[in-house]
Amino acid sequence: MRLLPLLQCPPLPLLHRCCLSTLLANGGAASCRRLSTDGPAPQPVIGQDSVEVFGRSHPRDDFTNVTPRILAKLGRNLHNQSHHPLWLIKERIKAHFYSSYIGRWGNPLFSVHDNLSPVVTVEQNFDSLLIPPGHPSRKRGDNYYLNRKRMLRAHTSAHQRELVSSGLDAFLLAGDVYRRDEIDASHYPVFHQMEGVRLFSNHELFSEVQHGDELSLFEAGGRRSPQKQEAHSLEAVKLLEFNLKHTLTRLVTHLFGQDLEVRWVDCYFPFTHPSFEMEVRFQGDWMEVLGCGVMEQELLNSAGARNKAGWAFGLGLERLAMVLYGIPDIRLFWSQDERFLKQFRVEDVQQPVCYQPLSKYPPLHNDISFWLPETKEDEDGFTENDFYELVRSIGGDLVEKVSLVDQFTHPKTGRRSQCFSIIYRHMERTLTQQEVKLVHEQIQRSAETELGVQGRY
Length: 457
Hints:
The protein is an alpha+beta fold.
């Protein structure tokens, strides 16, 4: 893991954050093995009975829903490609933490982990984070499963417990994550997250507090309230919350400038309490940029850190890069067009970059309308994510946006129909209506055969 030299350049002023009105007009153990860097990894393969990923075979079952197009993204690791915009934003965050937080021996306090395998167990992705069985976030329609036991991580937090278990008290973690989602300029089935965790012993948290030796992280017989968990003392939670918010405010003002307005909003996450979202004032509106909170003590106890308490945060690298560099469409991060990539080859990661748009090729609009299949009460019905995933698997990055534009229920039969608008636009050339027609007709046929809908064309 390369350590970036500590860069002491001043924060990027607000006036250098590009003309970003375009963005706002358009629109968030075994698995700890590192990915091999000794030559190219075997290409993932979906067979009749198994899925081969990173040289390992995973048996297929009724939960298997990963697609060849998604598996083709494994190993791309955009956040580790030198001078890619996601690499730039990751390196800026690393440099800030390396220079701002120094350990007792003069070394950076936070370690960085950015090459962990995205294939995790369902237990790591959900159970280790106290996400209960039956929680909506576990749905097959929202995730990419290799089978009932293994999946592509939906968040980098899937590695949180194992890194704490290894004895780490302060770390940053970056990686690619996978979710089935809608299709538009700010959503993509693969994106990149970065999160941080910091744990404190009793002495570390209260060392600078008057009479700190009389205070404790924990209290016996405590009650859970909106302000704290049952295991924590109120004094500990208030200090943890202050440290967390101060750390993150320093980070975003380092990235966006000292004049940035910041506010905090209370929210809910299963693995932190209390929990917060940070919003920043941008172009006259408040925009959410990250989530964070005091880590659930049950999670730390299960990881062998019973005598410590801590905080965690998570942010989306694409979201920050789109704002910081003025990138209007999330598909651009996957572009290999030299006109895009060369804009980010800067000598200093702190150097301001304002994305200059490639020629804006014209969009082509096509609608698709169909009757939904009738399902029994004990069956999983049609979901919009099923259709989005089918469109992705066929149209790929030719598809800019898919919108549900109309729904209809027949007054006599009760049958339901939906109409979707699909916008096709290539990022690097002009599409013809004929080639779009071929793709659109394939989507229509596949929707009928794979999703059981009946076309209304």
